[in-house]
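S1.2 Input.
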Amino acid sequence: MRVTFKWLKEFIDIAVSPEETAETLTMIGLEIEGIEKAEGDVVLDVDLPHARHDSIFEVNVTPNRPDCLSILGIARELSAAMNIPLKLSEYNLREEGSDAGFKVEILDADLCGRYAGRVIKGVKVEQSPDWIKQRLLKCGMRSINNIVDVTNYVLLELGHPLHAFDLDTLSGKMIKAGVAGKDNDIVTLDGVERKLPADALLIWDSKNPVAIAGIMGGADTEVTDSTKDIFLESAYFEPTSIRRTSKALGLKSESSYRFERGADIEFLDKALDRAASLMQEVAGGRVYRKIDVYPKKYAPVSINMKYDKVNRILGTDISHAAMINMVKKLGIAVDAGADSFTATPP
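S1.3 Output.
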C-alpha cells in the first residue's frame, strides 16, 4: 500500500524525517518496502507545485491488520508509537431533512451485516481539484471524475470502501442486498459481461443486479458526466463471501482487497459522512438524510490482560500507567484494575 508522508502529517504532527518515520513503522510491524521521493512532474506526471517534495512509503500490511489499510490506520499506529496525539477533524456536512424517499433492504443479514447510504441531488460531475488528483496519483490511483475520485480518496484516507450509483438509473428508488440465485449476469465497470455464481452477494435495484457487492459496480449505473443525482453506498459485507466471489470471477479491486480482510462495521457511517461532505465541497449538491439498515448490532469482545503477563511475554518492564496509555492511543477502550486491565477493541 502506498502512503504519503504529507497526508500522514494531517493526522499526526510528525517532527522527524520520513526515514525515521519508516524505521518506527518497521519496528511496530509495518514493513516499509521502499521510500519514493515525489518531486513534481518526475513522479506525478502532472504540474502541481504543491504536490512536490513529498515522500511515499510502500507499506507491506499483513493480512491480520486490516485496520492499517488506510492513512488513518497508519497514523494511529504512529500516534501510539511516538506518543503524539491523533488529530481527527469534524466533517462540515449540510443535510436535508428527509431521506428523499429512497429505500434500502437487506435480504441476507449474514452476508451483509449493515448497509448505509445517502442520496445526493444536484451534483456537478467534472474533473477533481488538483489536490485530490495528486493524492490519488501518489497512491497509485488514476483520476476519473470528482464523484468517483472522492470514493477512492476516502477509501485511502479512512480505509472503508464506498460506491456511488447514478440515482436516475436505479429502478424503483431502492437498493437491496441479496444473493444472485440462478442465471444472472452483469456488465461490470470494466466493460466485461460476467456470469454470476449463484451464491454471489449482489446489490439490486427493484429489477436487476446493479453491482457485485464489495467488488465492482455495474456499468449501467455508473456515474458519468451527465449524472445529476447519486446514491452513495457504505456497507459491510462478510469477508468469506467476498473472497469466494472474487476468486470465482477472477476479479479483484481495492474494495474487495479490504472487504476480504474485514472492514469495520461500526466505522462505515463515518466514512459515508466524510465522503458526502467532501462531495458537497467539490461537486455541490443537496445531501439527504442518512439511511442506515443495521439488523444485527456488533457486540464488542473484551479481553482481560494481566500487567505482569504482558511484561513477561514482551520481556519488558512497562509501568501500569504507560501500558494503559499505549493501549488507549490505539483507540481501544480500557477499564484499568490493580493487577489487570480489560481492553475492548473498537
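S1.4 Remarks. Residues 146 and 282 are 7 Å apart (CA to CA).
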